[in-house]
Amino acid sequence: PPDILPAFDIFVLPSGSEGFPNALLEAMAAGLACVATSVGGVPEALEDGVTGCLVDPASSDHMRDVILSLLRSPDLRSKLGQAAQQQTLKRFGMERMTSLAVRYYEGLVSPQDRPLAYIMSCFPRNSETFILREIMEMRTRGLPALIVSLKSPGGPVLHGDVERLLPETIYRSWSGPGVLKDNLVLQDT
User: Can you give the pTM of this predicted structure?
Assistant: First the structure.
């Protein structure tokens, strides 16, 4: 996205429903003027008239009018895009988000307490390097991290940090007699 988004003048997110859209944050961080429907977590990221334009999801006419207005006003696009970029980096930049996540985990677990448990369908996976970075950061901060994988990856390991974690990773099948027995024991208690 950082390579492609600067080629555009406006980013439009015409969703009928949303959680907290990463695509919108990426467009804002790229300095684009953004138009998005006021649904889900969108208003938390985008402030109408300040960092972009919020529109009613039920009004395609409103969406059209706002887009046309931005196309006709390069100065307004620039102003909204700059404000969006500054706000996004300040509120949702990597340093701030990492700091908040670490603080949250530190509030839950202490080194003398129990470890954090990362239960994943398969560890490691090349598509999930964010989890590896999180685990390594927790360990750097002295918070133990237990890794439980329900499947063995079966392929080559491509990252040195993963190689250090593999001997400690618990591979536990998600099916079989042991899991069935454990569930039956839990049902009786």
Answer: 0.58
